[in-house]
Amino acid sequence: MDIDTKTSKLFRNKAKRRAWIIYQLALTDRSLASIAREAGISRQAVWQALIKPYPRAEKIIAESLNLTPETLFPERYDSSGVPNRKRGRPPTKK
Predict the structure, then answer these.
(1) What is the mean pLDDT of the chain?
(2) Assigned domain for 40 exists
(3) How many domains are contained in the chain?
(4) pLDDT per residue over 56-88, tens digit each?
């Protein structure tokens, strides 16, 4: 799917992006629940990826729309496509 400038700006607004994703899935007679079933994860996990970072579900959503996760969730990835969030537990204070 080709993304124009107007649509890429839309992805920066979380509420509009969520509505756009649901709309695009509906155009193909699919839903968040159906792509979750196909991927073997819970529908809640897919829904949570729309609200907070969840790399596995982000990838599932993006692939169902023929996009990359870094295109669909630009604030969650750096310019090279690597997630920009820290991994692992925070260090413990002594």
Answers:
(1) 87
(2) yes
(3) 1
(4) 999 999 999 999 999 899 888 888 888 887 776
Instruction: Copy the structure tokens of residue 9.
Output: 């700006």
Six-digit token pair at 74? 């630009």
Q: Which tokens is 73 given? A: 């969730």
Kindly state whether residue 73 falls inside one of the protein's structural domains. Answer: no
Q: Is residue 91 part of a domain?
A: no
Q: Could you list the residue range(s) of the whole structural domain that residue 59 is in? A: 5-67
pTM value is: 0.80
Q: Give every CB contact of residue 58 below 8 A, 6+ residues apart in sequence.
A: 49, 69, 72, 73, 76
> 18 is written with which tokens?
């969520």
Whether the pLDDT of residue 37 is over 90: the answer is: yes
**81 within some domain:** no
Rounded to whole angstroms, how far apart are CA atoms 6 and 31?
Answer: 24
Phi then psi for 31, rounded to 5 degrees? Answer: -145, 175
Separation of CA 11 from chain center: 10
